[in-house]
Amino acid sequence: MIMDLIEKHPILEFKHGKKVKFTFDGNEMEGYEGEPIAAALHANGVRIYRVTPVKEQTRGFFCAIGKCSSCFMVVDGVPNVRTCVTPLKTGMRVETQRGKGVIAMDAE
Amino acid sequence: MNEKEKLFNSGVLVETRKGAVEPPVDLWQNKKNGLVIIECPQRIPCNPCHTSCPTGAVKPFRDINDQPEIDYEKCTGCARCVAVCPGLACFVVDLTWGDEDTALMKLPYEMLPVPEEGKSVDCLNRVGEPISRGKVVKVLEPMHDRTMVVHVEVPRSKVMEIRTIRVVR
Amino acid sequence: MKGLRQTEVLVIGGGPAGLSASLEAASLGCQVTLVDSDLALGGQLIKQTHKFFGSKDERAGTRGFKISEILLEELDGYKDRVKVHMNCTATGFYREDGVVSCVIGEDEYFRIKPGKIVMATGAQERLLPFPNNHLPGVYGAGAVQTLMNVYGVAPGKRVLMVGAGNIGLIVSYQLMQAGVEIAGIVEAMDRVGGYWVHAAKVRRMGVPIYLRHTIKEALGDRVIAGAMIQEIDDKFQPVGKEIQVDADIICMAVGLTPTCELLWQAGCEMVFVPQLCGHVAQRDLFMRTSHPDIWVAGDAAGIEEASAAMVEGRIAGVGVARSLGKGDSSEHSKRLEEYRRRLADLRGGEVGQKICQGLECCTVNEWGV
Predict the structure, then answer these.
(1) Which 8-state DSSP code applies to residue C299?
(2) What pLDDT score does B169 carry?
(3) Is the minimum CB–CB distance between C307 and chain B shorter than 8 Å?
(4) Percentage of the residues of chain B whose pLDDT score is greater than 70
(5) Is residue A55 part of a domain?
(6) What's the average model confidence in pLDDT over B90-118?
(7) Which of B31, B132, C45, C221 has its CA 20 to 30 A from that of A64?
(8) Domain residue spans in chain C?
(9) Is the pLDDT of residue C350 over 90?
(10) At the top level of CATH, which class does the domain C4-124+256-360 belong to?
């Protein structure tokens, strides 16, 4: 999958950082280091970030300022990560969050 | 509410009003380089059309919320205000351009693709309908800030309708 | 958890108001700690590609993101006095000892005890209730701007904009600049709420604005596939036939509400002011709240334009410096007089009338010191 980015803009010039690889539900994807995980996923065509515990409804990107909880995902095994304000790092393992997140200390 | 009001309330000028008037015809017909038309009918806190005007044609504001008033005798059609206005509400129309059926419009433009000189473009009215073709004469970036001022040759009869252009791919 | 940190002034929020407050306080000699929950400073300014209104004082005619760059450059000059924490959320204010708890990222906590605080926490977006509004593809207007103008990711192919206030109109225009089609703008009122010139810009590019219309329902199974819109009457009841709109994004621009949790936690006197779009703190003419150590500025003090937020931030900055005895009093008076004049000018228009009515409900001259 190639990132779908705005190539030409009449006003803005986009300065992206280093391109890194990460995985989403096991599939390898590319994104820019330091940019929000949620933005990298969106550029890769991913729209569904989690599935709610009771009604099993889909949720995705929404507020982009770390306030609404819509984009909670499991990142490197840690649930409830606000992917809209969490910077992407190389090798990150990003997963769709299904139901409630299981916090590591409970799982132990 | 009648249809005219409805249109105006959605951002379409339907008749002249304070802050959105036509230049006096006699002066306009003979003014080389054209005269400005500003369509800014609402009181909003904004005055760059006045502060940027090199000739004082946009009269001083008593209050920055005032609608612009123009001294057409002073307007040279330089289109500085076209490039500066945050509302893209200034347009220059030169009726002395070309033959008696044509006029030149200087329009603000901030989209892609940037029109090419010599090419034909669609001329759109205030609701985005293509109402004629125009020929791009010149593309300038007066403030070097990505707002283009596009000079387009258009049918003279349409100058009070045309308000932007669309590049035909 | 590490030990307790100290700062003379804590500014919470690095948008137009918080940056201005930090700069002003620093310029008068205060030591400032600035925390911001985002990955970049500048708040909503960094997403604004349009030129700002106002006068030269507010850098009218300059694009919003450029104004942010100018403020950040200014901030660079105060490196010795302003400490910045990014991706850092202020999570709580503890009334008994005046300590603020913060978290960087998801797990790095610290506590800080400020002398004075400026709450410049900004705003959050409202959402409308309608079936399927939870589906991915229903995005806040600020989120859409972040995606496309900060990270260069087009949010979708075809957008239905809900709300024709300044944000709805401006974001529609910005979407077109990013090459995205606008299916239309729906607005419940009988006129656009934003500046008329912003509406004219999108209308002349062929975008329909459906006045007195609302979104009835979002369509789609797992993601957005369209929307049903419908005309409404004087009492906001649906009338007439439903119109189906093809869209993969429904962008919500139905208003903002001040972010004021910390102000509540601090026990500031709060008042509901519809003209300012929610609960806001009572403040005096220095932007000080009823809590003697807390100031407020920008959208957190009531929803308004960024140009006003910057001036309010400056006033709050002078306010904290003055209370800390930094800078001399004639300088304070000179600056305050200038900033208050600028605010009055900005609020002199049609939209400003509403703001002024709202401010009358929550402003006192000066708290007893």
Answers:
(1) G
(2) 77
(3) yes
(4) 100
(5) yes
(6) 97
(7) C221
(8) 4-124+256-360, 127-252
(9) no
(10) alpha beta
Fold of the domain built from segment(s) C127-252 = FAD/NAD(P)-binding domain (3.50.50)
Across chain C, mean pLDDT equals: 96
The count of domains in chain A is 1
State the count of interchain CB pairs (< 8 A) between A and B: 9
Q: Does residue B2 form part of some domain?
A: no
Please state the ipTM of this predicted complex: 0.98
Tell me which of A7, A9, A11 to substitute to probe the interface with B (most B C-beta atoms closer than 10 Å): A11
A11 reaches B (C-beta below 8 A): yes
d(CA C319, CA C324): 9
Specify if A44 maps to a domain: yes
B45, C349 Cβ separation under 8 angstroms:
yes
Q: What is the average pLDDT value for chain A, to the nearest integer?
A: 94
Query: Looking at the complex, does the CB of residue A107 fall below 8 Å from at least one CB of chain B?
Result: no
Nearest residue of A to residue C142, measured between CA atoms: A63
Decide if B64 touches C, using CB distance below 8 A: yes
Instruction: Choose the closest CB to A81 out of C65, C89, C106.
Output: C106
How many folded domains does chain B comprise? 1
Q: Using an 8 Å CB-CB cutoff, list chain C residues near B114.
A: none
CATH of the domain at A83: 3.10.20.440
Taking only Cα atoms into account, the Rg of chain A, rounded to an integer number of angstroms, comes to 14
pLDDT per position as a tens digit, C87-112: 999 999 999 999 999 999 988 999 99
Count other Cβ atoms within 10 Å, centred on residue C325. Answer: 9
Q: Are B131 and B158 in contact (CB under 8 A)?
A: yes
Domain residues for the domain of A77 are 19-102
Q: Write out the residue range of the structural domain in which residue B147 sits.
A: 17-167
**What was the pLDDT predicted at A2?**
78
Give the list of residues 6+ apart from residue B22 with CB closer than 8 angstroms, or none.
Answer: B16, B37, B160
Closest CB to C348 among B12, B13, B65: B65
Residue B43: inside a domain, yes or no?
Answer: yes
Residue B10 counted as domain residue? no
pLDDT at B120: 98
Contacting residues of B for C201, CB less than 8 Å apart = 11, 87-88
3-state secondary structure C199-251: HHHHHCCCCCEEECEEEEEEECCCCCCEEEEEEECCCCCEEEEEEEEECCEEE
B110 part of contact set with chain C, CB < 8 Å:
yes
- For C177, the closest of A9, A62, A87 (CB atoms) is A9
